[in-house]
Amino acid sequence: MSTYKITTDDTLYETVQHGNSKYPFAYYPEDIWQFDFHRIDWHWHHELEFMIVTEGSALCLVGTKQLELPKGCGLFINSGILHRFEAASSTPIPNIVFSPLLLAPEESLIYEKYVLPVINSSAICQIFDPQVPWQNRILQILLQTFALQECDEKNELQTAQLLLQIWDILFQHLDLTADSGKSRQLTHQQARLQTMMQYIHDHYRDDLTLEEIAASASVSKSSALHIFNKFIQMPPVTYLIQYRLTQAAGQLHITGKSVTAIAEDAGFANAGYFCRKFRQHYHMSPNEYRRKRT
Question: Can you spell out the DSSP letters for 134-181?
Answer without folding.
Answer: HHHHHHHHHHHHHHHHHH-SS-HHHHHHHHHHHHHHHHHHS---S-HH
